[in-house]
Write a structure and sequence with these properties.
Blueprint lengths: L2 H12 L13 H19 L4 H12 L3 E2 L3 E3 L2 E7 L7 E5 L7 E4 L10 E8 L5 E8 L5 E7 L10 E11 L5 E6 L19 E6 L8 E4 L8 E6 L5 E7 L7 E5 L13 E4 L6 E7 L2 E6 L7 E6 L9 E4 L6 E8 L3 E8 L2 E8 L5 E5 L5 E6 L6 E7 L6 E6 L7 E5 L10 E9 L5 E9 L10 E4 L14 H9 L3 E5 L9 H5 L6 H17 L8 E6 L1 H12 L6 E5 L18 H4 L5 H10 L15 E7 L8 H14 L9 E6 L10 H19 L6
Parallel strand pairs: 31-32, 31-33, 33-34, 34-35, 35-36
Antiparallel strand pairs: 1-3, 2-3, 3-4, 4-5, 6-7, 7-8, 8-9, 9-10, 10-11, 11-12, 13-14, 14-15, 15-16, 17-18, 18-19, 19-20, 21-22, 22-23, 23-24, 25-26, 26-27, 27-28, 29-30, 30-32
The chain binds N-[(benzyloxy)carbonyl]glycyl-L-proline.
N-[(benzyloxy)carbonyl]glycyl-L-proline binds next to loops.
Catalytic activity: Hydrolysis of Pro-|-Xaa >> Ala-|-Xaa in oligopeptides
Keywords: Hydrolase, Protease, Serine protease
InterPro entries: AB_hydrolase_fold, Pept_S9_AS, Pept_S9A_N, Peptidase_S9_cat, Peptidase_S9A, Prolyl_oligopep/macrocyclase
Length: about 700
C-alpha cells in the first residue's frame, strides 16, 4: 500500500466519528435529534424573565429607517428602503433625486413570512429591464426573474438551478450571462448537503424559456470552478474570471461583436493562466482593462492590461500598492476618474484618482468608520456613498465630481431612543502570543469605570481575507446600553485588515495564530480591568463560529459564555458538503496528510475534552435548516459531542445547547423578525449565563 494512503488510513483509522449519522438531514434520527435539542433550548431561552424586555427593546431600536445609496439606471434613480421593521427592504424608483419615490419591487409581497429575499440584481444597460435573483429561506440557490422597468410587467421565464452566479447584461439589452448547475440532482432548496460541481456560464435571451439557453463557457476538466463573468463598461468585451476556492482567479476574455448570436461556446483568450493572485475587473479604457490585484502587491494595487497585448511584461501599474493601506475596492466614475477605497488601520479612506495616470485628485473626508455602500458609474459624474460606524447608523453623501463641490449629506439616518453621545469608540492595539500587534475596537459608555465588573461581548471572525470594520449593530448596542456592557471587536489575523500578509498570517498552518489572537484579546480585556472571565462572552459566525468553538476547547477557563453561529466545526469533512471544498484555500484539506494533522489539531469536533479543572463555559450553538453555505451537520455533530463528553460531569453545570432555526439559512436575506428573534436569543443567553440584570 502506498505510504500516503497507508498514512491516511492510519490517521483516519484513529479518528472516531460517532455522530456521522447526523450528516443526513432527512433521516428520521436526525430530525428527532433536532426536535429534541430544540425542545430543551427553546424553553431555556424563553424562561428568561427579561426576555420580553430584551425583545421589545431590540424591536424598538431596530425600528429606524434604513436606506441604500440611490443609483441611476436609465433615466431613473433606484434605492432600497426599509421603514424599520419590514422583513425585507423595498426597492423604490424616482424620476429625480427629490422626486416622489414609488415602490418598484417589494419582496415582502413574495412570501407571508418574509423569507423570500432579493439576493442579486442588475439593470440592463439602458435601464429598461431589471434582472433579479430571489432566494428562499436563506439558501444560496436562487431563481432569476425579469421585469420591464416601465410597465412593471414580469417576463414569463424563471431561471432555475442558479447558484454563485453573476448577472451581467450584453449592452444590446437582449440578455444576461449567468451561472448555473444544470447537472445538480435532487433537492436544490438549500436543505441538501450535496456538493456543487460543474457550474456552467449560460447566456439567456430575455423573453425566451430557459430551455433555449446556451452554455457559452464551461471548463469540463475543472468541476470545482465557479465562473465569474462581467461585460465590460463599454460593452465590447466579456471578462471571464474562474475561481476554484476562495482566493486567486484566472482571467480570460472574448470580444462581444454587435449582433453576435451567443448561441455557441465562446472562444476565450487567456490572459492570466496561473492561480496565484486575485484579479478583479474594475473598468476598461478602450483595450486597456483595469484590474484590482494582489499580484506582487499584498496590499493590492490597480494594473492596466492591454487586451490586445496582454503579456505580463506589458502590464503597467495604474495605482501602485500603498505601503501600509489596503486597496479595498475601486470604481470608475465620471469618464476619466475612479474612486478608490482604502482600509487604513481598519477604517475606510475614500479618494478620487485620475483613470489616465492614477494620480490622486482629491480626498473625500470621513469620520472613523466604514463605507458600507457606494453608487457610481463611469458614465456619470455623480456619486453616492454611505458611511457607518459603531455609533452612527448611516450617513449617505452625494457629490458631483464634475465640479469642485464638497460632498453634501443626502440623508442622515436617525435612531430613536439612543443617545450616541453617551458612548465612545476606542481603537487599541494589544500584543498577541507571537508579539504581533492586533487592533481591537472597544465601545462603551464614556463614564465607564474599569474595575473588572463590566460584562464584555468580544466578537471576531479571522479568515478569508474578510475585514471586520466598524458597523452599526443594534444587538451589540443593546448589550452596551442595557447591560452596562463593553463591546470589543478584535481584528485578528486571517482577515484582510492589513492585506495579504494578515490573511496569510491566519490560514493553513498559521490558523492557530487566529485563535491565539482572540484568546489574547480576552486576556487583554481582563488584564486591563474591563472584565473578568466569568463576565466575558464571545460571539462569532461561520468561520467565526469555528473561532469560538476552537477557543472554547483550548481555553474553557477564559470565557463565561460562548455563542457560535453557523460554525464550521468538522475540519476533517467540511469539504464534502455544498461549497465547503472552496474553503481549502484557508483551511487546507484533510485529504492532504500534512493538512490532516494540522486540521485535527484545532478541529472543534475533534478537540472536546474534559478540562483538568473547572468546566466549559455556557455554550450556545446556532444553525438553521436551509444553511447550504455551512451545513447544519457541523453544529449538530459538535453539540452531540459536547453533551456526550461533558454533559453528565458533575462539575459541568453550565448549559451546552443548540438551537436549529427553520426556514432560515446562513444569514443572508434573513427577514427582520427572524433577525430580532435570533438577537433576542443571543442576549438572553448572555444575560442568563453571566447572571446579568437587564436595565431598561
Ligand atoms: O463559500 C464562500 N465563501 C466562504 C464562506 O462563506 N465561508 C468560509 C467558511 C465558512 C463561510 C463563512 O465564513 O461565512 O463563498 C461561496 C460563494 C458564495 C456566493 C458567491 C460566490 C461564492
Amino acid at each position: 500500500m502506498l505510504p500516503l494512503v497507508w498514512l491516511r488510513k492510519r490517521c483516519q483509522g484513529l479518528v472516531k466519528d460517532p455522530y456521522r449519522w447526523l450528516e443526513d438531514p432527512d433521516s428520521e434520527e436526525t430530525k428527532a435529534f433536532v426536535d429534541a435539542q430544540n425542545a430543551i433550548t427553546k424553553p431555556y431561552l424563553e424562561s428568561c424573565k427579561a426576555r420580553q424586555d430584551i425583545y421589545e427593546r431590540l424591536k424598538q431600536l431596530w425600528d429606524f429607517p434604513k436606506y441604500s445609496c440611490p443609483a441611476r439606471y436609465g433615466d431613473k434613480y433606484y434605492f432600497y428602503k426599509n421603514t424599520g421593521l419590514q422583513n425585507q427592504s423595498v426597492l423604490y424608483v424616482q424620476d429625480t433625486l427629490d422626486g416622489e419615490p414609488r415602490v418598484f419591487l417589494d419582496p415582502n409581497t413574495l412570501s407571508e413570512d418574509g423569507t423570500v429575499a432579493i439576493s442579486s440584481s442588475e439593470f440592463s444597460e439602458d435601464g429598461s429591464i431589471f434582472a433579479y435573483g430571489l432566494s428562499s429561506s436563506g439558501s444560496d440557490w436562487c431563481t432569476i426573474h425579469f421585469m420591464n422597468t416601465k410597465t412593471g410587467e414580469k417576463y414569463p421565464e424563471i431561471l432555475e438551478k442558479v447558484k454563485y452566479s453573476p448577472i451581467t447584461w450584453t449592452h444590446d439589452n437582449r440578455g444576461i450571462f449567468y451561472g448555473c448547475y444544470p447537472e445538480q440532482k435532487g433537492k436544490t432548496d438549500g436543505s441538501e448537503t450535496e456538493s456543487n460541481i460543474n457550474q456552467k456560464l449560460c447566456y439567456h435571451v430575455v423573453g425566451t424559456p430557459q430551455s433555449k439557453d446556451v452554455i457559452v463557457v464551461e471548463f469540463l476538466e475543472e468541476p470545482l470552478w465557479r465562473i465569474g463573468a462581467q461585460v465590460s463598461d463599454c460593452g465590447k468585451w466579456l471578462i471571464i474570471t474562474p475561481v476554484k476556492d476562495c482566493r486567486d482567479n484566472l482571467v480570460y476574455f472574448t470580444e462581444l461583436k454587435p449582433g453576435m448570436q451567443l448561441n455557441e461556446k465562446l472562444q476565450l483568450t487567456q490572459v492570466v493562466d496561473k492561480l496565484e493572485a486575485d484579479y478583479e475587473y474594475v473598468t476598461n479604457d478602450g483595450t486597456k482593462a483595469i484590474f484590482r490585484t494582489n499580484k506582487g502587491a499584498p496590499n493590492y494595487k490597480l494594473i492596466a492590461i492591454d487586451l490586445l497585448d496582454y503579456k505580463q511584461e506589458k502590464w503597467v501599474d495604474l495605482l501602485p500598492e500603498h505601503p501600509d493601506n489596503v486597496l479595498d475596492w475601486a470604481c470608475a466614475v465620471d469618464g476619466n476618474k475612479f474612486v478608490a477605497c482604502y482600509i487604513e488601520h481598519v477604517k475606510s479612506v475614500l479618494q478620487v484618482h485620475s483613470l489616465i495616470n492614477g494620480e490622486k485628485l482629491r480626498s473625500l473626508p470621513l469620520d472613523v468608520g466604514t463605507i458600507v455602500n457606494f453608487a457610481g458609474q463611469k458614465k456619470y459624474s455623480e456619486i453616492f456613498y454611505q458611511f457607518k460606524s459603531f455609533l452612527i447608523p448611516g450617513i449617505i453623501y452625494r457629490v458631483d465630481l464634475k465640479n469642485e463641490e464638497e460632498p453634501q449629506v443626502l440623508r442622515e439616518i436617525k435612531v430613536k431612543n439612543f443617545d450616541a453621545c453617551l458612548y465612545k469608540t476606542d481603537q487599541i492595539f494589544y500584543t498577541s502570543k507571537d508579539g504581533t500587534k492586533i487592533p481591537m475596537f472597544i465601545v462603551m459608555r464614556h463614564d465607564a469605570v474599569l474595575d473588572g465588573s463590566m460584562p464584555v461581548l468580544l466578537y471576531g471572525y479571522g479568515g478569508f481575507n474578510v475585514s471586520i470594520q466598524p458597523t452599526f449593530g443594534v444587538t451589540k448596542l443593546v448589550f452596551v446600553q442595557h447591560l452596562n456592557g463593553v463591546l470589543a471587536v478584535a481584528n485578528i489575523r486571517g482577515g484582510g485588515e492589513y492585506g495579504e500578509k494578515w490573511h496569510n498570517g491566519g490560514r493553513f498552518f498559521n490558523k492557530q495564530n487566529v485563535f491565539d489572537d482572540f484568546q489574547c484579546a480576552a486576556e487583554y480585556l481582563i488584564e486591563n480591568k474591563y472584565t473578568t472571565s466569568s463576565k466575558l462572552s464571545i460571539l462569532g459566525a461561520s468561520n467565526g463560529g469555528l473561532l469560538i468553538a476552537a477557543c472554547v476547547n483550548q481555553r474553557p477557563d477564559l470565557f463565561g459564555a460562548a455563542i457560535a453561529q453557523v460554525g464550521v466545526m468538522d475540519m476533517l469533512r467540511f469539504h464534502k458538503f455544498t461549497i465547503g471544498v472552496a474553503w481549502v484555500s484557508d483551511y487546507g484539506s484533510s485529504d492532504d496528510p500534512k493538512h490532516f494533522e494540522n486540521l485535527l489539531k484545532y478541529s472543534p469536533l475533534h478537540n472536546v475534552k474534559v478540562p483538568e479543572s473547572g468546566q466549559y463555559p455556557a455554550t450556545l450553538l446556532l444553525t438553521a435548516d436551509h444553511d447550504d453555505r455551512v451545513v447544519p451537520l457541523h453544529s449538530l455533530k459538535l453539540i452531540a459531542t459536547l453533551q456526550n463528553t461533558l454533559g453528565n460531569l458533575p462539575q459541568q453545570t453550565n448549559p451546552l445547547l443548540i438551537k436549529i432555526e427553520t426556514k432560515a439559512g446562513h444569514g443572508g436575506g434573513k427577514p427582520t423578525m427572524k433577525v430580532i428573534e435570533e438577537s433576542t436569543d443571543i442576549l438572553v443567553f448572555i444575560v442568563k449565563s453571566l447572571g446579568l440584570e437587564f436595565k431598561l
